[in-house]
Structures are given as C-alpha cells and as structure tokens.
C-alpha cells in the first residue's frame, strides 16, 4: 500500500470569513478552549504536513482563543466570499502543487476531523486504487444513507494535484461549483459507515467526524453552548 505521507504535500483548511448565521467567523468559534481553527490544526499536525489556511479576509480574521494570529501559512482570497472552488483556484494559482502530490482539504466548520480520519480515507482509498493511483483525482466519503454510491462530499477529502492544478482552467471555462467539478472526475468514495467502524473510540450517539457547524443549533449540539463565544 502506498504511504500517505509520501504523497500528501499539503493540508488546506478553508477558513472563509464572517458567517451571517453565526455572527462571527466560524474559524474563531470556541470548542474546548480552542478556536475551531486551532483545534483542527492541532489534531491534523501529527501528520507532519504543512498546513495552509485560506481566509476570506486577512490574517487577523483567523485568531487563536487568546487573540493571537494563526501560526500556520495564511493565504487570503483575492475574491472573498466567492466559495470554496474560487478560494482553492486562487490559492493554487499562487502556490501550484507538484505532479503526483495529494492535498487534504477540510473546512474549519468540521472541527472533529483529525489525522485518523485522513489516514482511514487514504488506507481505504489506496487499497481500492491498487495500481491505478495516478488515475484517481479524489478520495472522499459519502454520508451514511446516501443512495448514490458515487456521490462524494467535496470536503473533507483528499484531492490530487492533477485536479487542483486544473482549477484555473476550469474556472476560465465557467465552472463555479467544487461539488459539480468533482462529480465527473475519477475518484474513490468511501462509505461513511466504514470510516466510523475504523475509528476505535467511536461509539453510538457520538457526533461523526464530518459533523458540520453552520447554525447556532449545530454549535449547541457540538459544545452545549447556545451562543458563540
């Protein structure tokens, strides 16, 4: 099986900007004394891979719980609030990837994702890819209960440099949806149930690692708090 760390070149966290529904940037929401961004960077750091944070505003918009700016690479969107595909396109235009490299892309509003999730995605994907690693452009998951076996959630996911380096051309051709752009590409889609079964400490009733915080109700489900700190 191909080793993850020999192919993974970069971790990209989509931090975005201020959320209209939450009233603050979701990257700065607090979870167990850390911001979502701090929590993600800490739990993904054991992979030993450079972390890039894509922000819709400036580096001061992604802060630690004590107000310090992010210590990882921060790349600010040239077209803020234009969505994840445009954020990734701008980043790759400025910082292209090496051929054959892979990137783990995750939103800051899924703070339960950690390095174990990334390893499970890769292990299952690499086993299914066998000798066709160079032909696959993404390894992602589908939600339990999804009826379409090829419907992949755009992130969190492992995405190849072949796909990401092609984004500027796709945008020039009119593409604006990351979900749509990935749907037609060769990929491996891992069942969400299989991921949960591979996490030794996951128990019935736990929130899944891909739990997404978009509303105050979801924030309350995660933290027990009704208002963002």
From TrEMBL:
A Pfam family of this chain: NTP_transf_3
GO molecular function: GTP binding; metal ion binding; nucleotidyltransferase activity
GO biological process, alphabetically ordered: Mo-molybdopterin cofactor biosynthetic process
Name of the protein this chain belongs to: Molybdopterin-guanine dinucleotide biosynthesis protein A-like protein
MobA-like NTP transferase domain mapped to chain residues: 12-182
InterPro entries, sorted: MobA-like_NTP_Trfase, Molybde_CF_guanTrfase, Nucleotide-diphossugar_trans
Keyword line: Cytoplasm, GTP-binding, Magnesium, Metal-binding, Molybdenum cofactor biosynthesis, Nucleotide-binding, Transferase
Annotated CDD domains: MobA
């Amino acid at each position: 099986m191909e080793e993850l760390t020999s192919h993974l070149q970069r971790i990209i966290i989509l931090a975005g900007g201020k959320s209209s529904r939450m009233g603050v940037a979701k990257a700065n929401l607090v979870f167990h004394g850390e911001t979502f961004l701090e929590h993600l960077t800490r739990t993904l750091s054991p992979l030993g891979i450079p972390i890039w944070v894509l922000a819709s505003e400036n580096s001061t918009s992604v802060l630690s719980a004590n107000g310090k700016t992010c210590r990882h690479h921060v790349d600010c969107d040239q077209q803020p609030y234009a969505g994840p595909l445009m954020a990734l396109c701008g980043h790759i235009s400025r910082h292209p990837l090496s051929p054959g490299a892979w990137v783990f892309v995750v939103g800051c509003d899924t703070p339960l994702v950690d390095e174990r999730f990334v390893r499970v995605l890769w292990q299952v994907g690499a086993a299914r890819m066998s000798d066709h690693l160079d032909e696959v452009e993404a390894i992602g998951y589908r939600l339990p209960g999804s009826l379409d076996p090829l419907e992949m959630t755009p992130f969190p996911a492992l995405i190849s440099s072949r796909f990401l380096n092609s984004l500027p051309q796709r945008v020039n051709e009119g593409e604006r949806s990351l979900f749509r752009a990935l749907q037609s590409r060769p990929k491996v889609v891992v069942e969400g149930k299989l991921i949960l079964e591979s996490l030794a400490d996951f128990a019935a009733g736990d929130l899944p690692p891909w739990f997404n915080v978009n509303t105050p109700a979801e924030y309350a489900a995660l933290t027990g708090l009704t208002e963002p700190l």
